[in-house]
Design brief:
Blueprint: H1 4-16, E1 38-42, E2 45-48, E3 53-56, H2 71-81, H3 92-104, E4 110-114, H4 117-132, E5 136-140, H5 157-162, H6 172-175, E6 178-181, H7 186-195, E7 200-205, H8 219-231, E8 235-239, H9 251-256, E9 262-265, E10 276-280, H10 282-285, H11 304-319, H12 323-342, E11 350-354, E12 357-361, H13 370-374, H14 380-389, E13 393-394, E14 403-404, H15 411-428
Parallel strand pairs: 3-13, 5-6, 5-7, 7-8, 8-9
Antiparallel strand pairs: 1-2, 2-3, 4-10, 9-10, 11-12, 12-14
Bound molecules: pyridoxal-5'-phosphate.
Length: about 425
């Protein structure tokens, strides 16, 4: 395929934007080469500036669960834009989307909207600290909760790909309140809790991890976290920025049958516009300003155009009773198709999949945490990635990212993908 125009655009971008991108993960650091520049997207497909078409397995890193430029969402955005784009004063739409979200996710009574997943997680931790009066937080190696300082300790994907798990600019003072445990290893968490009795405000976790590839939790791990939190007056925070409204109407917590104290949202909740949110039961949310003392605010929070996109997306997800089953069936079909191709070759691999999230790891071992995921960060992934991209199949450009399927993808797309994968692998020799 030709990438001439993308290449020119990337050069121009690099002159005025660090690395030419506005989010580190877009720069292809994990796979080499240059990103293509998107001209437009529709349904399951991306079209770049050179006129190439791609089957899109990222869905904007999750938000576009209904496919790109879904007509109802486009109409809602246009209709709202005509009425002005920001007022800095409440609108009815904010209450409507809050009612809908609260009705879909069982563990939350109230929800506050912000502008990104980063903001949601940052605010959730502040709320947990304010509510409990404690400072410490526990996170898991390879889990990602956005780029706020407290979380850039053993973060996943972007940070892992770049090889800077602890970013310069994060102070020792901040780092000392964040403890990192091993995902799927309850003992590693229990140890930290026991060594820091009375100090831990919350445990924040991706209930299904998606930032070291897709890594589902062991049931005893996630149930064990709930029990540990109850025993030690620690709040359990589920970061459902990826999984919320994606794995089920009620998110991963519905699928896993474990209720957190606070839930963070992002990605799908904005239907492709910049939205994040966090919710909890009433007594916790009451600590938030202006009801309570924990400060939180935002000039563009609850922005009417963003709320219109999010509300329309959630409404479609809530009313379409078949959508999650359909997405899961499609993803399983893709998984089986990839499995059938991969097992004809001499390359070790693992496929992790749950709901509409999946990832292929080129390693022998089962991938259950950050260390095992790291084994798949080898020469195979970039080669397969580029061989597929050249055939119009776009996977996440890092071995530490999950694929996010969207509802516009067809079985024909999966069959094409399997054929392309076969070609890609045979070209590796
Ligand atoms: C994407 C992501 C975030 C950060 O969300 P942004 O909108 O990129 O700030 C936080 N947590 C998880 C689990 C994510 O996948």
């Amino acid at each position: 395929m030709r990438y001439e125009r993308s290449s020119q655009l990337f050069k121009a971008a690099q002159k005025v934007i660090p690395g030419g991108v506005n989010s580190a993960v877009r720069a292809f650091t994990g796979v080499g080469g240059e990103p293509f520049f998107v001209e437009r997207a529709k349904g399951a497909y991306l079209y770049d500036e050179d006129g190439n078409k791609y089957i899109d397995y990222i869905s904007s890193w999750g938000p576009m669960i209904l496919g790109h430029a879904r007509q109802e969402v486009v109409d809602a955005i246009k209709e709202r834009a005509d009425k002005g784009s920001s007022y800095g004063i409440p609108t009815e739409l904010e209450t409507r989307i809050a009612e809908l979200a609260v009705s879909m996710v069982e563990s939350i009574d109230k929800i506050r909207f912000v502008n990104s997943g980063t903001e949601a997680c940052m605010s959730a931790v502040r709320l947990a600290r304010g509510y409990t009066g404690k400072d410490g937080i526990i996170k898991f190696k390879g889990n990602y909760h956005g780029h706020s300082d407290a979380f850039l300790i053993q973060a996943g994907s972007g940070a892992s790909t770049l090889g800077t798990p602890n970013s310069p600019g994060v102070t020792q003072g901040t780092a000392k309140d964040t403890f990192a445990a091993d995902y799927n290893d309850l003992n590693s968490v229990t140890q930290i809790v026991q060594q820091n009795k009375g100090e831990i405000a919350c445990i924040i976790v991706e209930p299904v991890a998606g930032n070291m590839g897709c890594v589902p939790p062991k049931p005893e791990f996630i149930k064990g976290l709930r029990k540990l939190c109850d025993q030690h007056d620690i709040l359990l925070v589920f970061d459902e920025v990826m999984t919320g409204f994606r794995l089920a109407k009620g998110g991963a917590q519905e699928l896993l049958g474990v209720h957190p104290d606070i839930t963070c949202f992002g990605k799908v909740v904005g239907g492709g516009l910049p939205v994040g949110a966090f919710g909890a039961r009433k007594e916790i949310m009451s600590c938030l300003s202006p009801e309570g003392p924990v400060y939180q605010a935002g000039t563009l929070s609850g922005n009417p155009i963003a709320m219109a996109a999010g509300y329309t997306t959630l409404k479609i997800l809530n009313e379409d009773d078949g959508i999650y089953e359909r997405l899961e069936k499609k993803t399983q079909y893709l998984k089986d198709a990839c499995d059938n191709v991969l097992n004809q070759y001499d390359i070790p691999y693992q496929i992790n999949q749950i709901g509409s999230m999946m990832s292929v790891h080129f390693c022998e071992n089962e991938v259950v945490d950050f260390d095992t995921a790291t084994k798949g960060n080898n020469a195979h992934f970039p080669k397969v990635f580029h061989a597929l991209m050249d055939q119009g199949i776009y996977l996440p450009p890092s071995p530490f990212e999950s694929y996010f399927l969207n509802d516009a993808l067809t079985y024909e797309d999966f069959d094409k993908t399997a054929i392309a994968l076969d070609k890609a692998l045979s070209s590796l020799g």
